[in-house]
Amino acid sequence: MKSIAIIYHSHQGHTQFIAQQIQVSAAQIKDIKIDLFTAEQLISQPELLIQYDGLIWGTPTYLGGVSGTLKQLMDATGPLWKKQEFKGKLAAGFTVSSLPAGDKQSTLISLFTFCMQHGMIWIGNPILPEQHQGVPYTQAANRLGSWSGLMAQAQHSSTADAFDFGDIKTAQLFGQNFAFNLSAYQGVMIT
User: Could you tell me which of 150, 89, 81, 82 has the C-alpha nearest to residue 121?
Assistant: First the structure.
């Protein structure tokens, strides 16, 4: 059995909601175990992540980057970097903001760079935007057009109704894709 840790920071619950959508759909892939962690749970013990085969990182986009809380966890992995404890693990990222763009791309690039420095192997978002196939924009998967990771837009409302169906669908497909890739992944041995 392979395992995925979904690590996220969520101030208002929106990023947590997307993390849960990813978890539920990834769990549909056979022989995959998925655990959710808040960044706060791991800041003092990031070594707990060593046991996982895949790491999915999530954060709201704050001023064009990751949240301070997730950045604090990223910085806490420095000792793990020195030993390359995450080398060869699959990785992916997702972010949420209240605007369609909101500079989410720079947040994903920050997550990508962090994972590359740890020697992880990045899995992007291969979902084609469905609005080009006639699906109404708010219901279309990958309506925001991101291939480097998952982007979602949250309205300023409660978590239950903050997202268009298309973003929920994208999160679910993203989770399935990551878990499928992990289930087929044989790993790499670099000495």
Answer: 89
Distance of CA 132 to the CA centre of its chain: 24
The pLDDT tens digits of the residues spanning 18-75 come to 999 999 999 999 999 999 999 999 999 999 999 999 999 999 999 999 999 999 999 9
What 3-state DSSP class applies to 96?
strand
Q: How many DSSP H helices and E strands does the chain contain?
A: 6, 6
Tell me if the pTM is above 0.90: yes
Name the DSSP class of 98: S
Amino acid letter, residue 185: Y
Model confidence over 85-103: pLDDT tens digits?
A: 999 999 999 999 988 888 9
Q: What six digits make up the tokens of 90?
A: 């699959």
Q: Is 92 exposed, middle or buried (0-12, 13-18, 19+ CB in 10 A)?
A: buried
What CA–CA distance (Å, rounded) separates 81 from 125?
25
